[in-house]
Structure formats: structure tokens, C-alpha cells
Specification:
The protein is built from 19 helices and 13 strands. Helix 3 links the parallel strand 1 and strand 2. Helix 3 packs parallel to helix 4, helix 5 crosses helix 7 and helix 8 runs parallel beside helix 9. The protein is globular and about 65 Å long.
């Protein structure tokens, strides 16, 4: 007889989150540079409680934090964000709608003059909840998709979640809430992205945001989900094809901050940005993250222990923003803070190693980013490719990470010509990506004396 608890045991368990990181010291004064920067986009983890069990979840969501903000405390945060001049707030989780006051706080955000959006897995976005979102003033909702149905359900941990996510798109649209979608690109779903985006465009999304799965939270426990750095040579041309297709269908392509970096598709990807290309990390300069217990950090995806600057129960949002070193780190970053390949890169002073979260969750510090298209192309010119090896596990806490080292190896002779052809043409896929899609798990060990980067 089948064990009725077998599937439950196979799901990743959500750890009990630690209490807020309280009473972190403030600097005595705010410098002019700290007052010059203001958050223009706030991502608020409204609760860590979740109704999914995603294999790649960076916050290991499932249980609520033991000390989440009360409704009154959350409304006070809204008032403080408005006073700082924040233009837009996105509520995420966990799953924001699992707090009963999600629409109360959402309406307060709108009444304060700020734009209001949300990100949802969509499992419980019923027609009634969608109507509540519309009544509260949500101006857009992004539903997460990780691949086509079988892959999405496997990564989300619960059968039927692809259908419920598609249902969430319809329910929100029927209620008058515009919809977008977002996708983490992993080895498991990479080959399905083009087909998936056609499905999503047919469903009426107004925009799509891809990002790369990185070893943050539960994804750190499954390194086989993580692309090798050299696989961006496949992923970026694929995303270029998707971007052109979306342009034809008048759907906005809006890549995450961890995608790209100064390869041949930057203008295609980011032509709508003021510079027309990627710049350095905006955490703590234009972006603010709020954890459900009131901890603040420069970007919600950053590891908590290293980047929380303070808690709203102890200090005002403005004081934490202006007077904590944990939120100042990108304001003070120079090329002297870079290392490895990024230190000597032609784009170092503009890029400054790009996404801080990606760098830190790989190496335990910022300043060197293996998932860079320009870097992969330059190594390809030399006949080299960059790989990752996990050297330390994660600690099983929200926003934790493992530690990886990167190394270089020669391209296999039977793949080098094909890799260069794909990079030159922007078409096709390399054989190794197909192997990954079919369940290929790379257990390759770094050879003795392999060159680090």
C-alpha cells in the first residue's frame, strides 16, 4: 500500500525564520550622497507564508515569520515610504494574499499616491481574490512560470500549479487587473522558454521578466538546477529571439538585473533604459527591500545576515536608508572593490560586477560575476569556458546560500566550433543544453590546478 505521506515528505520543508535583526547601529550622520539617493522601487515581502513548495525559492518560503509586522506597523511603513517619495511598491511573499490585510495595506499604498503591483505564484488567486485586488487598486500582477506544465509543476512542488497559474492570469484579467509574467531560467526549463512565452503572450500578458536561477535559498540545495556560466552563450541568444518576438507582438521584454551584461544584445534588451544598456547594481541606491518582519535591505534578494541595515521597529525607514552601512554598499563601491575577471574588465567602471546578489550567493562576497555574457564570449575567443563547483552547503535559512568556486577549462574539441557558431549566429542550442533538459546532471569535478577566475 502506498504511503499517503510520501509526497509530503518529498516536499522541501520551510524552516522557521529567525527573529528580526534588531538594533543594528546607525552612523551618526547621513552624508550628502546618502540623501541624494532615494528608493524609486520597493519590493516588500508581505509575509513569508506560502501555499507552494518551490524547489528554487530563495527565501525558503512556507511558514510565516514569527514576528511579522502588524497591520498598523505595515500602514506606518506605507506612510514613511510615501514621505520618502517612493513611486512604486510591489507586494510579494511567500504569498501576499495569505495575509488577511493584504488589500488594506494595498489600498493604503494607492491612497498615498504610490503605484501598486504584486508578484504571485497564483495557486490561490481565485476570482474573488482577483476582484479584491482590483478593488484595492492593484495596477498590475505578475504571475510566476518556470516552464511548461510538467516542468513548472515539478519545480513548484505541487501538481496542478501550472493550471492554477494560468487560471490566475484569467481571473485577474477578468477583474480588470493587467497581468504580466516572470520566469527563472534553470537547466530544467531553459529549452522550454520560447514555447512558454508564446503561451503567455497568447494569454494576454503585457510584459515578461526573465531572470537566472541562482543558488539562493532552496536552489542552493539543488546545484543541478543552476546553469553553468558558459551556458549563457545559449541563453542570451534565446532571450534575444524572445525579445524580438515580443516586440512583434507588442509585449514588453524586461530582463532582470542578473541577465546579460555588455554582450551584443544589450540595446535590444535594455534600449528603453536611459543609458540603453545595463549599469551597476541599484540595491540601496534606487531599490529597497522590506522583509515581513520589518528588516530593511538594499534589495530583497540579498542574503539577510550580511545586508540587513536595521528594522523599522527600531528606526525610521529614512534613517535606515541614509545611515546604515549595509544599505550604502553600492553607493561607495568602486573598481577597487572588484576581483577576479571583473577587476580587469573593460566595462568594470560602468558595471562594477553587476548584480550583487548573484555575486554574493556564489562566492560569499560581491565583486566578481561569472554569469556575464561579455565574459563568456571573451573566454570563448580563447577556447575556454567557465564552470562552477559547490564547495560549501547552505545553512537552511531564508535567503541563505551555498558557496561556489568558478574555474576555467578548455572547451572540448567536438563542441568548440559549434559553440562559436552559435555565438556568432545567435541561433540554435548546444548539445549540452539538450542533455541538461533531459535530466542530465553534471557531476564534473574541478581538475587539480584548474584556473580560477
Amino acid at each position: 500500500m502506498a504511503d499517503p505521506h510520501a509526497r509530503a515528505r518529498s516536499l522541501p520543508l520551510a524552516p522557521v525564520a529567525e527573529p528580526a535583526l534588531r538594533q543594528r547601529p546607525l552612523d551618526d550622520v547621513a552624508r550628502p550622497v546618502d540623501r541624494a539617493w532615494r528608493p524609486i522601487y520597493v519590493v516588500w515581502e508581505f509575509t513569508l507564508r506560502c501555499d507552494l513548495a518551490c524547489r528554487h525559492c530563495g527565501s525558503r518560503a512556507g511558514r510565516a515569520r514569527p514576528d511579522e509586522l502588524s497591520t498598523e506597523e505595515a500602514l506606518d511603513v506605507v506612510r514613511q515610504l510615501a514621505a520618502l517619495g517612493v513611486p512604486e511598491v510591489t507586494l510579494i511573499g511567500g504569498e501576499a494574499y495569505l495575509r488577511e490585510d493584504w488589500t488594506t495595506v494595498g489600498r493604503a499604498i494607492r491612497d498615498a499616491g504610490m503605484e501598486l503591483t504584486m508578484v504571485t505564484g497564483g495557486r490561490g488567486m481565485t476570482a474573488e481574490r482577483a476582484r479584491q485586488a482590483a478593488q484595492a487598486g492593484f495596477q498590475s500582477a505578475s504571475v510566476s512560470f518556470e516552464g511548461l506544465e510538467a516542468t513548472h509543476d515539478r519545480l513548484r512542488g505541487i501538481p496542478g500549479t501550472f493550471k492554477s497559474a494560468m487560471g490566475a492570469l484569467k481571473n485577474l484579467q477578468d477583474a480588470g487587473v493587467p497581468v504580466s509574467a516572470n520566469t527563472q531560467i534553470s537547466r530544467a526549463g531553459a529549452l522550454e522558454i520560447e514555447a512558454l512565452t508564446e503561451v503567455l503572450m497568447d494569454a494576454g500578458i503585457h510584459s515578461w521578466q526573465p531572470s537566472l536561477t541562482v543558488p539562493l535559498g532552496r536552489a542552493a540545495d539543488l546545484p543541478e538546477l543552476i546553469l553553468e556560466p558558459f551556458q549563457v552563450l545559449d541563453v542570451l541568444p534565446m532571450l534575444a529571439r524572445v525579445a524580438r518576438r515580443m516586440r512583434e507582438r507588442k509585449v514588453r521584454f524586461w530582463p532582470g538585473n542578473d541577465v546579460g551584461y555588455f554582450g551584443p544584445y544589450e540595446t535590444l534588451f535594455r534600449g528603453m533604459l536611459p543609458r540603453g544598456h545595463m549599469a551597476s547594481c541599484g540595491a540601496g541606491r534606487a531599490i529597497l527591500g522590506i522583509e515581513a518582519n520589518g528588516d530593511l535591505k538594499g534589495c530583497l534578494s540579498l542574503p539577510s545576515k550580511a545586508y540587513v541595515g536595521g528594522n523599522v521597529r527600531d528606526h525610521s525607514v529614512q534613517d535606515i536608508w541614509e545611515r546604515t552601512r549595509a544599505l550604502r554598499f553600492t553607493r561607495d563601491r568602486t573598481t577597487e572593490d572588484l576581483w577576479g575577471y571583473c577587476r580587469e574588465c573593460y566595462y568594470s567602471d560602468v558595471c562594477r560586477s553587476g548584480c550583487s546578489m548573484t555575486c554574493h550567493v556564489l562566492a560569499g562576497r560581491t565583486g566578481n560575476n561569472p554569469f556575464c555574457h561579455h565574459r563568456a564570449l571573451e573566454y570563448l575567443r580563447e577556447g575556454l569556458r567557465e564552470r562552477l563547483q559547490r564547495v560549501a552547503p547552505a545553512s537552511n535559512e531564508p535567503f541563505d546560500h551555498a558557496r561556489f568556486e568558478s574555474y576555467l577549462e578548455p572547451w572540448p574539441e567536438d563542441e568548440l566550433a559549434q559553440a562559436r557558431a552559435v555565438a556568432a549566429s545567435g541561433e540554435g542550442w548546444l548539445d549540452y543544453t539538450t542533455r541538461a533538459q533531459e535530466g542530465y546532471t553534471d557531476t564534473h569535478e574541478a581538475p587539480d590546478g584548474a584556473a580560477g577566475s
